[in-house]
């Protein structure tokens, strides 16, 4: 039987809900401490040349297809993380506050259209050349003008070096989201950037690429000339493998930290503990808000079928939000290793308490009854000849999403709503993304996803909900001079009680969020994993943001 998060915490003697990921890592798992486990940990901590080393497994999708190139997707791609090989202008601490890295200071003009960064003068690339503001400008312009870049710097007009240690960024429009992106954009050398940079990266960060065997592993080693605090871990070996192979790598002692899932969390190998990292890795379902036939045109000429005759009814969307028992779902599907999700950024400074909704099946039933969705002899609902039914798409290769989809469908059936889960490839899902509900995975340590999933013209507005007041609040949030000033505007976009507008469950209810998934790992005893920031979506590089502070005891 799978070990649940609650029973795991009880076994640790720790109180659930009052400790962070770092404290949880210090609790004992089911593996149990023993001399052989400690010895294995000590042996594993030494590399072939005697330096300190850690071996970590990651999903195959964590391998960067284009290599370690920030101008394509490394660091600021789908799953954001610190680039390690390259330095960034700024970074975030464990509380997600901005801190300086290459920058020694920065400021924004009163109109929000000019950012000025002062750069430290002691950073050098691993080829010995000094890093200057010219490299910063080259990197930012390369991303802003690059068609294949995954980092979003579309708000940038131009970056320019005023002198060796000063870079100025001219904006097309005020947008403080720039800071969130710059915190994960690695600076590349203008003098040494070429077509093969991703395979042979030159950076100024904490680590250097020692070896890359495509489809198998990446080996990083500490940069001896790094300007900051010397890394405690000299070498990092990352093995790319599927979930079952990850378990085998821990069971055989090959890996020091191996990712796993709730379904395997009870199989903690001897000599290991269970590391539970808090996340904002949310699973939610987009609910098309327009009737069938409302096609969507993207990029001027790409036409997608859009709209849904069931989810376009706000009563259905609101009923789905209050009629689902998220806690029961998390126990059944995630063995308790997660917590209820109500938005794409629960617990973040920009989140809104108005997104929270308590399970109330009776209220859901009333909403459907009052909207005219009547039950038939089979208990399922219909209105004016239209069945209260829809397909729910999910990524076919994801067992967790599949289980969530079927649990959701079972709960909907009790409400009289017929939901048919459909596992499909992403290529197939994208053709249906505006017409059918889709079970997505999102989560970021920035409000960018909230903006894009909610804004009328956002790339993630799958619900196709468009509201001028919501858009105005989102635009105002990005236009503030400081990120702290943006929070009330983001919250108002989710729900503004004064105007009765927003995407919250009591309003437009454009999504039904289900669960935030805990990120679980088997951690070898004797390895001290530094305190983690909340992990964004994706099991991968976010774990090693602070790998330089890990150590062996």
Automatic annotation (TrEMBL):
Q: Which UniProt keywords apply?
A: Signal, Transport
Q: Which Pfam families match?
A: SBP_bac_5
What InterPro entries has UniProt attached to this entry?
Answer: SBP_5 (IPR039424), SBP_5_dom (IPR000914), TAT_signal (IPR006311), TAT_signal_bac_arc (IPR019546)
Q: Where does the Solute-binding protein family domain lie?
A: 98-448
The signal peptide stretch is 1-25
Top-level taxon of origin: Bacteria
What parts of the sequence cross the membrane? none
Return the similarity comment.
Belongs to the bacterial solute-binding protein 5 family.
| PANTHER family assigned to the protein according to its UniProt record, in alphabetical order | OLIGOPEPTIDE-BINDING PROTEIN APPA, PERIPLASMIC BINDING COMPONENT OF ABC TRANSPORTER
Name recorded for this polypeptide: ABC transporter substrate-binding protein
């Amino acid at each position: 039987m799978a070990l649940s998060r609650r029973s795991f915490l009880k076994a640790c003697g720790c109180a659930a809900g009052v400790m962070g990921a770092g404290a949880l890592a210090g609790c004992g798992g089911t593996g149990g401490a023993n001399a052989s486990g400690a010895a294995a940990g000590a042996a594993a901590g030494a590399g072939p040349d005697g330096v300190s080393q850690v071996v970590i497994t990651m999903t195959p999708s964590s391998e960067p297809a284009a290599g370690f190139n920030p101008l394509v997707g490394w660091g600021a791609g789908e799953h954001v993380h610190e680039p390690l090989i390259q330095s960034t202008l700024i970074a975030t601490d464990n509380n997600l506050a901005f801190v300086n890295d290459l920058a020694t200071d920065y400021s924004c003009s009163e109109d929000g259209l000019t950012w000025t960064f002062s750069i430290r003068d002691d950073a050098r690339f691993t080829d010995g050349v000094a890093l200057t503001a010219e490299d910063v400008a080259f990197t930012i312009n390369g991303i802003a003008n690059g068609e294949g870049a995954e980092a979003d710097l579309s708000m940038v007009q131009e970056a320019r070096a005023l002198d060796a240690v000063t870079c100025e960024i001219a904006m097309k429009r005020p947008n403080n989201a720039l800071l969130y992106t710059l915190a994960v954009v690695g600076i590349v050398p203008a003098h040494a950037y070429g077509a093969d940079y991703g395979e042979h990266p030159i950076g100024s960060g904490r680590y250097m690429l020692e070896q890359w065997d495509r489809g198998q592993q990446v080996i990083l080693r500490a940069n001896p000339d790094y300007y900051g605090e010397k890394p405690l871990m000299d070498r990092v070996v990352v093995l790319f493998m599927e979930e079952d192979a990850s378990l085998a790598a821990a069971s055989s002692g090959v890996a020091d930290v191996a990712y796993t899932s709730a379904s395997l969390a009870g199989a903690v190998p001897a000599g290991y503990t269970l590391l539970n990292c808090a996340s904002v890795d949310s699973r939610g379902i987009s609910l098309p808000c327009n009737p069938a036939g409302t096609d969507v045109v993207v990029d001027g000429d790409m036409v997608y079928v859009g709209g849904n005759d069931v989810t376009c009814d706000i009563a259905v969307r609101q009923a789905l939000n209050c009629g689902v028992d998220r806690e029961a779902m998390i126990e059944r599907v995630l063995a308790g290793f997660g917590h209820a999700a109500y938005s794409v950024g629960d617990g973040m400074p920009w989140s809104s308490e108005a997104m929270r909704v308590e399970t109330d099946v009776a209220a859901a039933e009333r909403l459907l009854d009052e909207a005219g969705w009547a039950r038939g002899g089979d208990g399922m609902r219909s209105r004016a000849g239209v069945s209260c039914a829809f397909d729910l798409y999910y990524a076919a290769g994801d067992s967790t999403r599949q289980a969530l989809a079927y649990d959701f469908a079972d709960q909907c059936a009790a409400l009289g709503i017929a939901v048919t889960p459909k596992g499909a490839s992403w290529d197939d899902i994208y053709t249906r993304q505006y017409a059918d509900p889709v079970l997505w995975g999102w989560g970021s340590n920035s409000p960018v996803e909230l903006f894009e999933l909610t804004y009328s013209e956002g790339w993630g507005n799958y619900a196709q909900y468009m509201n001028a007041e919501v858009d105005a609040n989102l635009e105002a949030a990005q236009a503030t001079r400081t990120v702290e000033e943006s929070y009330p505007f983001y919250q108002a976009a989710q729900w503004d009680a004064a105007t009765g507008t927003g995407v919250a469950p009591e309003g437009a209810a454009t999504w039904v969020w289900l669960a935030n998934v805990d990120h679980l790992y088997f951690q070898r005893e004797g390895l001290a994993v530094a305190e983690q920031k909340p992990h964004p979506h994706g099991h991968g590089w976010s774990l090693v943001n602070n790998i330089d502070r890990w150590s062996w005891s």
